[in-house]
Amino acid sequence: MNSKFEPVLKVKKQKLDMIENKLAIARLEKRKLTNDLEKTKQDILNSEFPKKGTFATLQVAMSSYKILKEEKEQISEQISLKSTQISHLENQHKNAYMDMEKMKYLHDLEIKTKVEKLKKQESLALDEIATQRHFFLKGK
Questions:
Q1: What pTM was estimated for this model as a whole?
Q2: Mean pLDDT across the stretch 18-45?
Q3: From residue 5, how far is each of 39, 99, 103, 107 by CA, in Å?
């Protein structure tokens, strides 16, 4: 049975689905960044400085160590931004879900009202048929 809330409910559901997809993507990206951060931390721990050699070799090792540290900081910053984005999307999801539930409630309420109205009309029609039949049989 259709109600005037059905198109609105459909739009709210689409919005909720879109937010859920964005949220899943953001969580997946955060998980990937977390894995990248762990890999970078492991690379930093595994980096070795030369025990002997020229100053140039030491400079190369120091610059690669510095690059790894900068990469670690950059990934940490990206994770922080993703966490903020996820928090924002979760808030949007909560609000969209509540809006959809309100529309669903109104839709269900209207359907229930229509069903009750139809039942009452059916009952009145059956009463009318019974009354007509009663007088028809009484008249014979």
A1: 0.76
A2: 96
A3: 51, 12, 7, 5
